[in-house]
Design a protein that fits this description.
2 strands, NADH Oxidase, 4 helices, about 45% helix, single chain, mainly alpha, binds flavin mononucleotide
């Protein structure tokens, strides 16, 4: 089905790449967290320079960078988040 709808539709292909890469990035971040590591997602980068540096094909879309490492002692705490019950409803 994906082949049928996505072939010849660059916008849909790009949308799908961003969705898939974002899910992969979140999985990486959760796995890293589970291993005691800290991460930071970044979308503010020079996509053209990154594609050149990593020799990406024109069909490969740089979506998100994720830094992974150990927090330094005294690292600033995570900014406050709204409680889960304010943003998710289970039906
Ligand atoms: C999709 C996405 C892209 C982001 N891009 C950047 C970025 O380019 N530069 C940056 O400094 N922070 C960026 N952030 C914010 C940081 O990843 C991080 O969420 C923010 O600093 C809050 O940190 P905290 O979760 O420890 O409170 C981005 C966050 C998300 C979700």
């Amino acid at each position: 089905m994906a082949a049928h709808t996505h072939i010849g539709n660059p916008q849909l292909q790009r949308d799908e790449a961003i969705r898939s890469a974002s899910l992969a990035a979140m999985t990486l971040m959760l796995a890293a967290q589970g291993m005691g590591l800290a991460t930071c997602a970044m979308s503010g980068f020079d996509a053209i320079a990154l594609a050149q540096e990593f020799h990406l094909a024109v069909t490969e879309v740089p979506v998100i960078l994720v830094t992974v490492g150990y927090s330094t002692p005294g690292n600033r705490p995570q900014k406050p988040r709204r409680p889960m019950n304010e943003v998710i409803t289970f039906a």
